[in-house]
Design brief:
This protein is mainly alpha-helical. Helices cover about 55% and strands about 5% of the residues. The strands form 2 sheets. A 3-stranded parallel β-sheet has the order 1-2-3. It has a two-stranded parallel sheet with strand order 4-5. α3 (about 85-95) packs parallel to α12 and α9 packs across α11 (about 270-295). The longest helix is centred in the last third of the chain and has 29 residues, at about 295-325. The structure holds adenosine-5'-tetraphosphate (AQP). Adenosine-5'-tetraphosphate (AQP) binds next to β1 and α1.
Amino acid sequence: MKRIFSGIKPTGHLTLGNYLGALRRWVETDQHQADAVFCVVDLHALTVEHDPGRVRRLSRQAATLMLAAGLDPERCTVFVQSHVDEHARLSYLLECTATDGELRRMIQYKEKGARARAAGESVRLSLLTYPVLMAADILAYGTDEVPVGEDQTQHVELTRDLAVRFNQRYGHTFTVPRATHPEVAARVMDLQDPTSKMGKSHEPGSGIVYLLDEPDVTRRKIMRAVTDSGHEVRYDRAERPGLANLLDILAACTGGDPEELAGAYPSYGALKKDTADAVVELLRPVRERHAELVTDPGAVDAVLRRGAERARGLARPRVDAAYAAVGLLPAG
Ligand code: AQP
């Protein structure tokens, strides 16, 4: 059975982008078709300025939302990255495989590093090395497929390069994984700035739909989405990014095709209303289940404990093999 691995960073409240780009596929497809491993990648949240209490709260919230969305711990493994030491152990070996040049080329490093410098903050070394830790997350599990939004494509490419390089130097150790993307809404854009990704760590604003927003808040955000000054509803990502974003979201919610949907709408207002209704209905069961689960944090902790135990058992033999392969003396 193929192995799937993917994760979510606790850097903010989960968004519609996380749901349509990743989480929904994990629930509806991946956990049924593969031995799937899903992780709250909390170590990745430490690469930028962070508040310890907030990271802790967001980690628990992300895990709770993953379960609320429908991940079934009887079908897949759900855990928190920092509970499994193998990720950090393997990351070091991969740092010894990667070059600083290839890490400096990563778009996210360039963008976030520039943002931090512009704000007068120092750039943490871990921001540079974060894609290597992500490679370790993936390779530790012998992963075949990594279901992610398009923003993660470059990091999965790096993971593939590191796996191939390691295997060539030290003998076959890692499966070379590939990224998979949803057919629509692989990149949900900010409703107020449709040229930039809807990201959970971005400044909170009316352009970001959070999974736990109240329905009327979600409706308002979508009704106020930036479009353009035209009238005709046409799907054109380059010329009309705001409209295309709404059509992508509606198509992802209803299972339609964004170009065909465009033809069905006489006005922007009608499109926004249907999109708002579709999003609210899509998220309703997730919000309801989340409200139940938060009343029993012990049950969520128990799932995470069992998940971490299983994850350790899956990762350890491969990470031990990698340590031996590079020439480190096995502990007696
Ligand atoms: N807007 C999006 N559209 C489609 N997929 C998305 N994903 C994130 N945003 C979108 C996918 O969700 C999974 C988990 O994302 P993440 O936690 O790695 O990143 P984020 O939500 O984008 O959080 P940040 O902290 O705001 O990230 P960055 O580092 O981009 O600044 C992934 O599969 C991701 O593709």
